[in-house]
Amino acid sequence: MNKSILEDINLLSLTIAGFVAGYLMFITDLALSGFLGLFGTYDIYKSWITSQNLFQGFEDIAIFLGHQINAIIFGFFLVYPKIWKFLPQNRLIKGFIFATIWHLLVLVVSFIFGTLGSIWLKDLLKMGLNFHISLYLLHLVWGVSLALIYQEK
Q1: Is the full-model pTM beyond 0.85?
Q2: CA 132/CA 124 separation, integer angstroms
Q3: Cα torsion for 39, 41, 44, 49, to the nearest 10°?
Q4: I want to staple 118 with a disulfide (CB 3.0 to 4.6 A). Which of 31, 73, 113, 140 is the partner?
Q5: How far apart are CA 29 and CA 31, in angstroms?
Q6: What is the Cα–Cα distance from 145 to 74, expressed in whole angstroms?
Q7: What is the spatial distance between Cα 144 and Cα 16, in angstroms, rounded to a whole number?
Q8: pLDDT tens per residue across span 32-82
Q9: Cα 46 to Cα 119: distance, rounded to the nearest angstrom
Q10: pLDDT per residue over 99-117, tens digit each?
């Protein structure tokens, strides 16, 4: 019996939860920029886009929309039923564990592709500890928010 992966995912809830979680991550980065020498990663992404002359005049909109789409799409990994049920029932802990694993995967992917020549990911690897701490904290905001907001079918 072939069953679609999407059948057991509440797509409306994922879309809303992903959008809200992505927005909370985004606004946290902007609002806390410079706090204890952390956050403000938005500026780095904007510099990457402007250095490539992408979306000229619309960089902020492109970054926001791209970020929101990523927040929803990458949310599929958390709400995939086997992963959702495997993680602890407590949604706070579920989001924390997911975000931590997600962040580690981001670092692994960045290392592999950065080492193989990806300009943006190579730059990411060279960033200071404060950037990496910020990115981890932002992934926690996203993962925990996503887990708290998403409602299963």
Answers
A1: yes
A2: 9
A3: -150
A4: 113
A5: 6
A6: 13
A7: 14
A8: 999 999 998 888 888 888 888 888 889 899 999 999 999 999 999 999 999
A9: 14
A10: 999 999 999 999 999 999 8
